[in-house]
Amino acid sequence: NVGLDLAWSWLIVVDIDNHAGASIRDTILKLAEYGYDLPAETYIEQTPSGGLHFFYTGTVPVKRITNFIPNVDLLADFTVIAPSSINGDAYRSITDQYNYTKIRPAPLWLIQAMQERKPVYKDQTNSKPITSKKWTGKKLDEIVTGTNAGDRNNWLTRQIGWLVRTGADPKTVYTIAQQINRDYITPPLPDSEVNTIFKSIFKREVQKYDR
User: Fold this and answer.
1) Structural domain boundaries enclosing 43
2) What DSSP letter does each residue of the chain carry, written as one string?
3) Cys-Cys crosslink for 45: which of 53, 85, 111, 164, Cβ 3.0 to 4.6 Å?
4) pTM of the model
């Protein structure tokens, strides 16, 4: 097996596990919800357990933060890399095959987290915490931006699907869906199409939980 000295290599790894039933996708969305975007245009390896290692360049004083959020560790000391294996399952590159030249710089939040030992942003001018736009905020911005005739059905389907998955009452979802159609789609879809989309998505989501 092969180990990599991250500090000597000026690298930081975001280690995402799929423990406790949480999917990799859910954990990445949770990071984004907290304002911790994870640039994917970098070198990435899959671990034998199905987790992911995102590699970024950078130097930091703190070498490891475990459980930064559930299922996420931040590493700047060492890590095991491909083609190492555990019980016959190997680490493997899922981007350019073992191309370490395409590792991009670490995002600001990652550098700050490793410097401060905790997930906090601070405004350097007045030392007050500042808020990074979270995933929900981005989603609301997307809705208000709206869409036009070329993508109306698919676009409204995505928005209603998200509203249903929030767990809001179906009547609430339907009311908001009607408002989105009226105010943010040009031209608005007929009520019959909105009804069809709503019923289809709601039925699909209910079936997921009935399985």
Assistant:
1) 2-116
2) -EEEEHHHHTEEEEEE--GGG--HHHHHHHHHHTT-----SS-EEE-TTS-EEEEEE---S--EEEEEETTEEEESSEEEETT-EETTEE-EESSSTT-GGGPEEPPHHHHHHHHHSSS----TTT----PPPPHHHHHHHHHHH-EEGGGHHHHHHHHHHHHHHTT--HHHHHHHHHHHHHHHEESPPPHHHHHHHHHHHHHHHHHHHH-
3) 53
4) 0.56
